[in-house]
Amino acid sequence: AEQNLENIDLEQYPHINKGLAGIVAFSTTKSFIDGQTGDLIYAGYHIDTLAENATFEEVCFLLWNDRLPNQEELDELHNKLRSERQLPEPVIEYIKNTRKDAEPMAVLRTAVSMLADFQDDSNDTNHAIAVTAQIPTIIAAFDRVRNGKEVVSPLDEGSTAFNFLYMLNGEKPGQAAEKTMNLCLVLHAEHGMNASTFTCRTICATESDMFSAVTGAIGALKGPLHGGANTAVMNMLLNLKEQGENADPVKFTKEKLNKKEKMMGFGHRVYKTFDPRAVHLRKMSKELSEETGHEYLYEWSEAMVKTMKEEKNIDPNVDFFSASVYYSIGIQPDLYTCIFTMSRISGWTAHFFEQKANNRLIRPRALYVGEKNLDWVPVEDR
Ligand code: ACO
Known about the structure:
Layout: E1 31-34, E2 39-42, E3 45-46, H1 47-53, H2 56-65, H3 71-83, H4 89-97, H5 104-115, H6 124-146, H7 160-169, H8 175-187, H9 195-205, H10 210-221, H11 229-241, H12 249-258, H13 276-291, H14 295-312, H15 318-328, H16 336-357
Antiparallel strand pairs: 1-2, 2-3
Bound molecules: acetyl coenzyme *A.
InterPro entries: 2-MeCitrate/Citrate_synth_II, Citrate_synth-like_lrg_a-sub, Citrate_synth-like_sm_a-sub, Citrate_synthase, Citrate_synthase_AS, Citrate_synthase_bac-typ, Citrate_synthase_sf
Pfam families: Citrate_synt
Keywords: Transferase, Tricarboxylic acid cycle
């Protein structure tokens, strides 16, 4: 039921809900989160089921259509994504010419914004497919350019996960690497009214276009309290590594808490228990760090989890174990949030469709706490 608070007199009811915590502003069929039990459902399917069975492309179709595709529909989606992977030449030129030490998320934001100029129609479905197909190409191209390597063009075959790793490394990935990347994409695809999705819907609600909404969402995801946390987690682990023989994850965690600093990758506005996505990433982190000789990363991560639970009763979120997973498969830490974007684009675009289908301008209020009766003082007298 919708509550009518439209004409609420803010002076009489000076209630501020800082951070909009607990406010329900939309209905959605895209995902359900139970923060107490640690359950997550995308359009009817539990995240555990999807993690075990789904490809990222099936998740895209599911989020866009609220049902799974049949084989023909899935093949069609694969074909469309493959045909859209190439970037317009000016976007490649921008990637080649921007600063090599620019933040990858900033480059991605600018490049996605540029993509809008090269769309021939105003069809939102086509735009969603184009932007989903092109984000991995942008990320891989920038990473190659900044490392002094040739840009690798996408192949006309393979999944999103396969092509991304191919364009990033210049060689076709093995099945295990593709499977890991696919699982990461499935796990990050959609998550209710998080800050970036809310940004996307807010921009959509002004009747602006999909590229503007996605560009804004990338800006929101970039921050360390949201998607930027996975890079921050890796930097934290690398800081610890620098301490060599003296590296002690328990002491490190306690010292951070004593200094009132946040442990990145922990805590969540909605989950008050273990993030169900972190369950899968934790397992992957263990397997991969053993395979690649980075056992210490997994062991330190577990020590931090235990200490955070004991000291603050706070559990890890999706960003915590994803850091050691990406590190183990050889991805540079500052690309982690870009990979998050590569996946979350599916959720953002799905919410764009949902918002547009039943739109109303998003416009909350602010309680004014400033002065009201000041007299004007001429500039020379101030
Ligand atoms: N480390 C230490 N203490 C924490 C952490 C943390 N990571 N997270 C929350 N707390 C503490 C706060 O200090 C606060 O304690 P207090 O009541 O004693 O002051 C209490 O828990 C509540 O924290 P808030 O920041 O008020 O909770 P909020 O719901 O506003 O924030 C957030 C949630 C931003 C995710 C927070 O937990 C955080 O900053 N975590 C670290 C960054 C991070 O990992 N972000 C990724 C989130 S998942 C995602 O967006 C994909």
